[in-house]
Amino acid sequence: MTDEGTGRGVRGTGVRSVSHGPSATGGAISTAPNGHSSEPYVPVFTGETKAKLDALLVRYPTKMAALLPALWMVQEARGWVSPEAMAEVAQVLGLTAAYVKGVVTFYTMYHQHPVGKHFIQVCTTTPCHVCGAEDVVKAFLQQTGCGELGVTSADGKYTVIEVECLGACGFATPVMVNSDFIESVTPANVSDVLKKYV
Amino acid sequence: MGFPFKPHPRENTVLSKHFGQAEARTLDGWKARGGYRALEQALGMDPLAIQGVVKESGLRGRGGAGFPTGLKWSFMKLGDGKPHYLCCNADESEPGTFKDREIMRWTPHALIEGCAIAAHAIGAETAYIYIRGEFTEPLAVMEQACAEALRAGIIGKNAMGSGKRVDVWVHKGAGAYICGEETALMNSLEGKRGNPRIKPPFPAAAGLFGMPTTINNVETLAAVPPILVNGGEWYKKMSRPDNPKSTGTKLWSVCGNVARPGNYEVEMGFPFKDFLYDLCGGPPPGRKFKAVIPGGSSVPIITIEEAEAALMDYEGMVAVGTMLGSAGCIVMDDAQSIPRQVARLARFYAHESCAQCTQCREGTAWTTKILERMVAGDGTTEDFDTLMSLADDMTGKTICVLSDSCAAPVVSGLQKFRGEFEALITKKSVHTVPAIVA
Questions:
Q1: pLDDT 10s digits, A39-79
Q2: Would the N or C end of chain A have less CB density within 10 A of its end CB?
Q3: Chain B contact for A131, CB < 8 A?
């Protein structure tokens, strides 16, 4: 359980991915304990990605409005949003790194730490809760070997978290694996779902 | 309709008619179904005339507040020399609600058409559709439909050859329930933290980028093209005869302990009892309904007896002590512990509080802690007063209504199911599930 760096919400409510996941367990993703990569930083916004961002900028009257899209591009390219990436985004959009961090920490979908190859979000809000979502979470934690919410499995493959209402309440329990949205997951078909993500 | 997409004979499918038809997602398929006729008509009309038709229809906001749409549009001062903006609120995150998702997945062009008509009606050249980041499929479908409409010249700098500019852009959120609040959405779209703003100024005076802005829900905008084609009078007729204040059809998302969950579209004023038992198929086998949260998690919880007596429109829901809200109907059967579910709801609000206002940041957190302690069997009789006092501090005293929304189910849950809470304290008992009745 961590509230570090979420910048909102309350201690003890909601579990996001935590920094000691893969590095502490010797997983596939190599990072220093503070979450900074030891490799030299390679900029994201060059070539095609830069052109894609420039094309987006014409949609808005301010550069700042492209911040959320720019952060998405970073996450797509790198899997998470590192402090160095925040600094790069700040520079590209004419903002400060502190400002960008303030925005990143507000939103739950930007990873501030590396996560498993497959990031699994199980909806457990009331409509799914009444349909037994807790058991779906347990099944995922068991079958991925994660054991605990927010912790990446030893092989670096999976991170499982609970997520607040995914907006598909009639198809309980909806689960997101990376960007795939899967409906009607039950404890019984968790193993089938996982087969696709190895 | 339940799943797969087969409407119940008592539904009136204005918005959901083409759900489940893959061809309806394409521009050609949409045109073949009469699509973009309304936009063509609108672009040749005076903005005030469009506002007039929508006012006449009686259409009210489908996002939760139920504000008259035509009236909202009329707050935009036309010809003031400032850029105007239209925001489409597609940040559907209210627990129990999943209707906008289906509109975007199956009829993306209906939304684009609604956006373009509304933009013209409020003097805007740009419309942004803000879709929550978790909606990966609706995002992809909407992006593709927008690109297709732009390529075909339906939107863009010369929309349908009218000489008018209407840009429609999709903007992806990044995970925050609060961004469904209109001013938080605007902050988020501007690249800021999604903190709600103090009103006034209202969006029509100073909204997105500080300019006059109208913000409408997906379902509201999708209802505009059929209204324009068929006329305001046609829409107004879909209501109960003794209540002209709620008009048209409404998509109800039904979830929880119910035989056939899904989206159902019925005319305003439909009897809730028939809806729950006939359309949705009643409770799961051997169970009985116990409680309903009819309008998304932010509205007061009602007992099944109250629900069975209700009529499904804005006034009908108020009459039984709750609200229509976003019409995300969460049904609970007799196997559910109300304290446990109320505690889970409180946890949701505690997680989603933007933490700007003290009453909300602290109130949602302490409400959650107290409720979870009660559920764990460590409650005291003083907890009732503490929870009610917290709820009072959280109602009507904050920038937005998130903390009010947390208080609503807590207060109504304590009032209507007090016995269940008391049992947790006096008997230190955990909830027991009654046996299934054969």
A1: 799 999 999 999 999 999 999 999 999 999 999 999 999 99
A2: C
A3: yes
What does DSSP assign to residue B433? P
What single-letter amino acid sits at B362? E
ipTM metric? 0.94
Helix (H) or strand (E) holding B262: strand B262-267
Q: In this complex, is the C-beta atom of A167 within 8 Å of any C-beta atom belonging to chain B?
A: yes
Sheet holding B302-303, edge to edge: B262-267, B249-256, B328-333, B289-293, B302-303
Interface membership of B240 toward A (CB under 8 Å): no
Q: Domains plus CATH for chain B?
A: 22-236 (3.40.50.11540), 249-333 (3.10.20.600), 338-426 (1.20.1440.230)
| Tens digit of each residue's pLDDT (9 = 90 or more) over A87-109 | 999 999 999 999 999 999 999 99
- pTM exceeds 0.90 for this model: yes
Are residues B261 and A165, on separate chains, in Cβ contact within 8 Å? Answer: no
Q: Residue B187: closest CA among chain A residues belongs to which residue?
A: A65
Eight-class DSSP state of B353: -
Domains of chain A: 36-104 (1.10.10.1590), 118-195 (3.40.30.10)
The verdict on A96 touching B (C-beta cutoff 8 Å) is: no
